[in-house]
Amino acid sequence: MQDSAFSSSPGQPYVVILGTGGTIAGLAARVSDNLGYTAAQVGVGQLVAAIPSLTDAGPVLTEQVAQVDSKDMSFEVWKQLAARVKHYLAREDVQGIVITHGTDTIEETAFFLQAVCQPAKPVVLTCAMRPASALVPDGPQNVLDAAAVARFKGAQGVLVVCAGTIYAALDVQKVHTYQLDAFSSGDDGPLGYVEEGGARMVRNWPVAKTSPAQAAIKLIADRVPASDWPRVEIVMNYAGASGAVVQALVAQGVQGLVVAATGNGTLHQDLEAALLVAQANGVSVVRATRCVNGRVLPKPDDRLPDSEGLSPVKARVALMLNLLCSPAGARQAVPG
Ligand code: SIN
User: Fold this and answer.
1) What would the pLDDT profile of 266-318 be if each residue is shown by its tens digit?
2) Which atom of ligand 1 approaches the CA of 72 most closely?
3) Is the CB of 140 inside a 6 Å radius of any atom of ligand 1?
C-alpha cells in the first residue's frame, strides 16, 4: 500500500503522509491562476519529493489513499482513510500521521477521524488554498508545519494545521473562501502555532474520550459497509422557511436530521412543526446554529435536542455515528 519512503535520517521514527487530494494537489494552466485549477492532480509522493527539508527531522512514508476534490468526499473514502490511519498508528516505528486534504470538508474528515480513531499519537490534516502550480503555493509550508507537529513531543489527537496555526478537530471551521489563513476555531481559539518547526501551544492537545458510547463508535465504523451508514441530512432555518424539505426527506426514509437553526437555536414555526412530527415518527433531530460563533444554549422547555456546541456539519457526522451504534445500526455490522 505504501508508495514511497523518503529518508535522510534513518533510525528515527517515521511520519506517514497520506494523500487524499484537494487544492494542495491541484494544477492550473498558468502560475498566476489561483482559481481556475483542477484539484487532486498531483500524487502525494510527488508533493513530498518537492520538499527536501521534510526529512531533516526524520524519515517519511507516503501513501495515496484517495485523489478527490474534497467537495466530493464520501463515506467510502472516510472508511478507507480511517483504516489506514489505524494501521499506521499501530506501528511502533510511526510517530505521527499527516493527511493532505482539500480545505472544503477538512473539518468534517478531521471530526470523523477523531471520533473513530481517538488517537494517542498526532494525526495532522493539512491543506492549501492555492494549487501546487501557483507562483507561491502555500501547500509545501503547510506540509512542513504539519510534519513538525506530527513530530512534536506530546502531540496527540486529530488536528488541522494551516497557515502556521494548529486547530482541534472538534472546533475548527473553514471561514474564508480565498485567504490563505482560511480557518478559525471560533470562541475556543486555536490550540497553538507552528513557529520555525516548533509548536507554541496555547491550549491542551485533544484527549481521547473513554465513554462506552465512544468505544462503540470506534469499533462500529470499521464493521458496517459505508453504503449502509445512516442517512442524515442538514436543513436550514431562514426567513420564509417551511416544513416542505423535512417532509420530503422523511418520505424518502431519512434517519436523522440536523437543523442549522437561526441564532440560539430558533426555528420558523412551520419548520419546527415538521421537525417535531419527524421526531415523533422516529427520526433523530438535532438543533445546531447557523451562527459561526457561539453555541445553542439549552433551555428547560426545548423540544428538540441541541448539538452541544457542534456546527451543523459536525453534528451531522456525530448523529450519523450515534445512529450507526444504535441497535438498528449495529445489526448491519459484518463480523470483524
Ligand atoms: C478541496 O476542498 O478539495 C478543494 C478546495 C481546497 O482544497 O481549497
Assistant:
1) 999 999 999 999 999 999 999 999 999 999 999 999 999 999 999 999 999 99
2) 3
3) no
Q: How far apart are CA 218 and CA 116, in angstroms?
A: 4
CB atoms near residue 108 (< 10 Å): 18
DSSP 143: H
Q: Which of 20, 23, 109, 165 is catalytic?
A: 23
Catalytic site includes residue 266: no
CA–CA distance, 197 with 150 (Å, rounded to integer): 11
d(CA 54, CA 9): 11
- Cα separation of the two ends of the chain: 21
Cα–Cα dist 245/111, whole Å? 26
127 lines ligand 1 (CB under 6 A): yes
The sign of the torsion formed by the CA atoms of 245, 246, 251, 253 equals positive
List helix spans (H) across the chain.
44-49, 75-89, 106-117, 139-150, 212-223, 244-251, 269-280, 312-324, 327-330
Sorted by where each starts, the structural domains of the chain and their CATH numbers stand as 2-201 (3.40.50.1170), 223-333 (3.40.50.40)
- Evaluate: CB of 23 within 6 angstroms of ligand 1: yes
Give tens-digit pLDDT for 144-202.
999 999 999 999 999 999 999 999 999 999 999 999 999 999 999 999 999 999 999 99
